[in-house]
Amino acid sequence: MEVAIEKQSSRITQTSRRTPKTTVISLKSVEERENFDNQYEFLLTTIGFACGLGNIWRFPQRAYENGGSAFLFPYITCAILFGIPTVYIEFLAGQHQATSPPIVFRRIAPILEGIGWMTCAISTISAIYYSVIMAWCFVFIFNIFRGHLELWNNCDNPWNIREICVEMRSCSRNLTDLSENGNETEIAYNNNIENLIFFNGSCQIPPDLNSTKLISPTQEYFTNHILQRSDGFLNITGINWPILFSMTFCWILVGLLIFKGMRIMGKISYVTAIVPYILVIIFVIRGFFLPGSSNGLYLFLGRPDFKKLYSPRTWSEALKQLCFSISVGHGGLMSMASYNKRSSNPFQNAVILIVADTFMSILGVAVEHVVESGVNLIFVAFPESFSGHSAIWAVLFFAMLIILGIGSQMAFVELFCSCFYDQHPNFRHKKYLIVPIWCLILYIFGLIFSTSAGFYWFELFDKYSAGFSSTFAIIIEILCLIYIYGARNIKLDIEELIGQPKNKITQMIGAHSPYFIINWQIISPGIGLILIVFMCFEQKYLMVFDIFGWILAFIPLFMIPIFAWKNYRYFKINNYPIKGVLSIQRQHLSFSRICDIYSDAEFEEAMKLPEHEPWENPNQEENFENVE
After folding, report:
1. Ligand-binding site membership of 48 (annotated)
2. Is 98 left (phi over 0), alpha (psi -120 to 50) or beta?
3. Is residue 408 annotated as involved in ligand binding?
């Protein structure tokens, strides 16, 4: 008994003599890390990041194609079963460790560091192509002030092809210039007045649609005038100078906005998160008073197709839309949570984010009145609806899209900067150097979007950049946190942040609920795997375009083996135990607590691990010895 007590006493002494020094250094870095000034700024920043363009241009079409208002049932179900738990665990991991995703996973096991860099790569790819969306919006706003609002809805412009251009004019009986065929024309007109369209400069009976592909003037305006599109993604015939100038301005703007770091982003979020909600509500109210608005709402609310709920595709589309909308697996949510105050409740923040995201998606349906999706919705259908109305509405609409895009773009760009600062602390106060260089690099990669083939490359990035890789990333994140770091440690981390449950109700349905452990162990990973299977089997034919797309989708995944090898080499070169790359590191903020349950042999092995991160100064330890 005395021997056992002596061993335990020696172990406690050793822990108190060695472990706290590393812990103090980590805690000191947490204290020096800038934070949001208050909880509202954190929430608004995450809402501005997650609730973006996907709510406006993707959700309406997904709803109309998959049962109308009935689509809300699978979407909300996925939000509860998958959305809240995944956002919760990302908030929890980032907030507890108060550092960027690569270090979060490196402290769990160095071999896992690449998971954090994988999420960073996903956000980087998204940042590259988000800039061109904002650039298109800026070009539209500039052209509105040039008087193009009344031009893009008719077929008499140099960019129109009159032989296929169909205007949305009303063919009244005043239009008698149907053709040069006299009586035959009059007879055709009298018998088919409801079927006439304004085509090729006059009201006519529609031509044979099997041999003639008709197109709206707004589609031609966007395709031929704004994009100046070539006939393939490998056919690069020149530079689109208006888009290039707009992209340049967008990157300068984003760089200036994130120049001061996360704290200034919290201030900017009052605009990027709140203003879009105000504007979209204004558009919804205005839409209620427009002719035909009741028809659009009836199609969505009055005719739910509950049969669609029996289709696996409907549930797959709901989950894909949710993943795209809330941006899980991008690393942004975890990174922003690392700047949040440690006393904040990550579960409540996750619920608020999901509610805000769902609300914005529903508003997107209410605004939408033409069954279109993607760029065709926001750059073709909406501009068509603005014709004949005040230009202020069109300007406000595109301004709203720019603000939504900036909210997401800033988080995408800042993520890499945060990861870089955390592993190169000496550059933390040199943002004037890092931010411009990183924005310039992304700008150069994005120059392909300013070419005549830019639209095709945009579609490639939009289709393949986030769906597969981000879903794979969130699955790996959850599995590593719940099975490698451990469910017990996650429970204790929750208690460290927000304390014990206040009552039995909060213990069962709140942040401490055992449901989340079960969800993270089985439900969320299972749902994510099912989605990945659907994505793979949806691909029936592989063209050159798709091959490029899948290469793009797999690029972030290579971060895992690259950084696993890097850390293996680090341990081998510095003569640390090789199996230490699979162990929780001494820099983990909960290491002192975790090693309490180690056996003596395990504890001795743990103490052989590096006391410092590779980028930390070993001499820094002496400076913090007396902090406690």
Report:
1. yes
2. left
3. yes
